[in-house]
Specification:
It is built from 4 helices and 5 strands. The protein is of the alpha+beta class. It has one domain. Strand 4 and strand 5 form a beta hairpin. The chain starts with a helix and ends with a helix.
Length: 123
């Protein structure tokens, strides 16, 4: 849990403080720090659970150092979908931590109709 809190702190600060000449987003938007409940396990256990529940990975993306597109990869987000039930969940991991954490699970996914029309996505 401490690792995830540090990761989220790094994530927000890397985005927030990427340009030190501008007002901090934390100040500008009245953001505040909070603790996020997560469930963590070895990657094979997350994969086993996802397969048992009919989830499949939909996307993977990388958080990079200092919020810069060419920065070193500091965390990885994988987004999963269960097409029949319109459920989703997302995991976050770091290149140096052997575990993966589920940061949320949602139900009743609705896709943006503009993206669906443009890209041909369906559930």
């Amino acid at each position: 849990m401490k690792k995830l809190i540090l990761l989220l702190t790094f994530l927000l600060t890397s985005v927030v403080f990427a340009d030190t000449h501008e007002e901090s987003d934390i100040q500008k938007y009245n953001f505040y720090w909070n603790q996020v409940p997560v469930v963590c396990a070895a990657p094979k256990e997350i994969d086993r659970w996802a397969n048992d529940k009919g989830f499949m990975p939909l996307s993977i993306s990388y958080g990079r150092a200092n919020g810069q597109p060419d920065g070193e990869i500091v965390y990885i987000v994988t987004y999963y979908i269960q097409q029949e039930t319109a459920e989703t969940f997302a995991t976050v991991s770091t290149p140096t931590d052997p575990d993966v954490c589920i940061v949320f699970r949602t139900y009743n996914l609705l896709l943006n109709p503009n993206i669906v029309k443009e890209k041909g996505l369906t559930l």
